[in-house]
Amino acid sequence: MSLKIDQDHSRFRGIVKGRIRQNLRKYISQGELIGRKGKDLVSIPIPQIDIPRFRFGDKQQGGAGQGDGDPGDPVGGEEGDAEQGSGKAGDSAGEHVLEVDVTLDELAAILGEELELPDIMDKGKSKIINEKERYTGIRRIGPESLRHFRRTYREAMKRQIAMGAYSKDKPVVVPIPDDKRYRSWRTEAEPVANAVIVYMMDVSGSMGDEQKEIVRIESFWIDAWLSRQYKGLESRFIIHDAVAREVDRETFFHTRESGGTMISSAYKLCAQLIDDHYPPDEWNIYPFHFSDGDNWSMDDTLSCVELMKQKLLPRVNMFAYGQVESPYGSGQFIKDLRDHFGKDERVVVSEIRDKDAIVGSIKDFLGKGK
Known about the structure:
By secondary structure, this protein is an alpha/beta fold.
């Protein structure tokens, strides 16, 4: 019975994952999904999965299956009148919505499969140590949960053959306590691949709520995928207009700012964070910058180019720039990056016109496996 339940549950989870995969682009572009996030689970509404169940009617209703009945009685109760009822007839099926809990790791796996994202080869090991148990041999004592079945019965058979108690016509092997063998293990310490994402966002007057919502949604899915690739993932947040400052996650996604734009201020602060906290030989470093592409001047853009060449690119896995379309921004910065770094594989740029473009942007950023 337990095996059948496990099979049914596995089949149901397969159906759920299939429905999620069919509607993945819709889920990714909806900010409501992030609001459903718990500690490790996300509740997702899955349409058109009807769970079979018994329904019991009231007693003494009549109809087939209740009492003797008469010829002509309707099956399931009294015959209804086509003209009764307040609703009008329709030609579409009713929608059955079931909310299911899916782990973030499962969502990240589905995202990776759909976008064909490659696994990331880490470039360094952090100072964080992970303890891992490894089975190394066999011993005579141990818990029953680690008893080695084949080795136990081999010892029992050797003993019975040596004693002349084994018969090949009746091959019955009965282990005694001295025959039992158990797996042995030891705990090994190993450094864990670690990563940091430095999110930078332009919060000048041209970046409105819609643009920030796009950044929020895309950042959530980037976090989900990279968390699956690395056991430890840190996120740092920088906002900038003419001046950059580090903030917490809540401020990053909900701040309302205005003013001019000097992108170099964010790049300088990002380089300082790496200098102070994240040695490149121990950390996988991912700066992500989101802006509408409107910078204060060409001189500041050239400063950004020099900062990237001298301070950032030699130390990061990848530098990602996402340009969110805004009716007020010039959109020039992405063109300047392409002019200067068009052949540099460490620099990945993406244009994000609206929420529907988020999926393609994630593919642009993570599709190279860096």
